[in-house]
Amino acid sequence: MNGLLPLLFLLLPVAAFSGWVLGRRRSERTSGARVSELSTNYFRGLNYLLNEQQDKAIEVFLKLAEINRDTVETHLALGNLFRRRGEVDRAIRVHQNLIARPNLSDEEKTVALLELGEDYMRAGLLDRAETLFADLVAMDALAPSALRHLIGIYQHERDWDKAIEHARRLERATGESQATTIAQFHCELAEQARAQGDHVAARAHIADAFAVEADCVRAGMILGNVESAENHLDAAIAAFERVAELDVDYLPEILSPLLDSYARTQQMQRAEEFLLHIIERHRGVSPVLALARLYATTRGEDKAVEVLNESLRHRPSVRALMALIDMNLRGVGGEARENFLILRDLTRQLVEGKALYRCNRCGFGAKAHHWQCPSCKTWGSVRPIHGAAGE
Fold first, then answer.
1. Which string of b and e fits 240-253 if b means at least 16 CB within 10 Å?
2. Which of 77, 154, 259, 377 is the most exposed place for a label (fewest CB within 10 A)?
3. Handedness of CA 90, 92, 93, 97 (dihedral sign)
4. Cα–Cα nearest to 145, from 107, 180, 179, 182
5. Dihedral sign from CA coordinates of 263, 268, 271, 276
6. What range defines the domain where residue 322 resides?
7. Which pLDDT band, with edges at 50, 70 and 90, does 12 fall under?
8. Which of the given ranges, 94-98, 326-330, 369-373, has the highest pLDDT on average?
């Protein structure tokens, strides 16, 4: 329904004034009944849009476009509808024909160019879309919209330097902070450098991310991984612990390398203190499972079982139950073991195939964490799902 709003804003003024405009233009050639019929057709087309009957809406607006070829709004609406239906070639033709008209105002032409650029993007013709949007930005026509589309193209192409440049231009054009997005682009560059083993460049991009957003969680995580790779384990621990303090929801992402750094520096007491502290703040099961594993090696399995039992009483969790079953399996045999195996299989089926993360903007579910939502393309919106079957 939200996707229809631009069309409705575009067509409502046409519907409201269609009778008056058509009556004025055709007062000498048409009857009042004809004007009434055209006005009624506009409202009929709008009704089809509201009910998401795009085929019928297109049929109505096509007829209106044939009757009144000068109506720019109708042709824009038609092109938009074709694009929404996946008929991108038809949308491109409608918008190209509209742009070719000699009597278009500058404002109407820039709107049509913007729509044509969106058609090219939907068709996968990113080079054409980029050229068109860049021309609009150069003319300072609809610059914010064109800039947003260009940023989307550069993200798709993973051209992070250009994405940063245009995000800064968007910030200047609108006055709206793009710090979070720009920091993510710097983090993408840092990840690329780290993957290539270039830790000097990675550190430079991390510094750029922190300069834009001082509390950038992702930059802290990358820094922890770089410090760990260079065997600066105390620095790695400090970086990961800071991430947990900044945003405890990202704990599952840093827990494994953090515990590894504790183990490599033989700071297991510090690890225990960290986990006990974070369990009080984090409602998820990951630190509980980590603490149980730690106790299993340092204090014995009875202590680990005690931790899991205590957690299950206060925070029902399928993952904690599975860990408890696995621990109990080691000390039983015969029929009791068979029963535990059946119970373990049942609990595993409860979590297999389940989404562990969800975008808090569009609701997209995923088994793994994404910094950018694959669906709505929002940065930093994918979070762990809390609940019995999740975190």
1. bbbbbeeeebbbbb
2. 377
3. positive
4. 107
5. positive
6. 283-352
7. very low
8. 369-373
Phi, psi (rounded to 5 degrees) for 308 = -65, -40
The predicted pLDDT at position 268 comes to 94
Comparing 50 with 123, the larger pLDDT belongs to 123
Q: Give CA–CA dist 269/278, Å, rounded.
A: 14
Predicted pLDDT of residue 52: 56
Helix, strand or coil, per DSSP, at residue 78: helix
3-state helix, strand, coil in the chain (%, to 5): 75, 5, 25
Q: What is the DSSP string of 39-51?
A: HHHHHHHHHHHHT
Q: Is residue 204 part of a domain?
A: yes
- Pair 254, 296 in one domain: no
| 3-class DSSP assignment, residue 211 | helix
Distance CA 77, CA 57 (A): 10
d(CA 166, CA 203) in angstroms, rounded, equals 23
Find tokens 């607006």 and name the residue. 61
Residue 344 and residue 288 in one domain = yes
DSSP letters along 242-292, please? HHHHH-GGGHHHHHHHHHHHHHHTT-HHHHHHHHHHHHHH--SSHHHHHHH
- Give the number of domains in the chain: 3
pLDDT at 386: 83
Query: Are both 346 and 359 inside the same structural domain?
Result: no
Are 327 and 370 found together in one domain?
A: no
Confidence of residue 24 (pLDDT cuts 50, 70, 90): very low
CATH number at residue 222: 1.25.40.10
Q: Region 375-382: what's the mean pLDDT?
A: 93
Strand, coil or helix: what is 105?
A: coil
In this structure, what DSSP letter does residue 387 have?
S
Beta-bridged to residue 326, according to DSSP, are: none
Burial of 124 (0-12, 13-18, 19+ CB in 10 A): exposed
* 3 state DSSP class of 298: helix
Locus of tokens 């000068």: 70
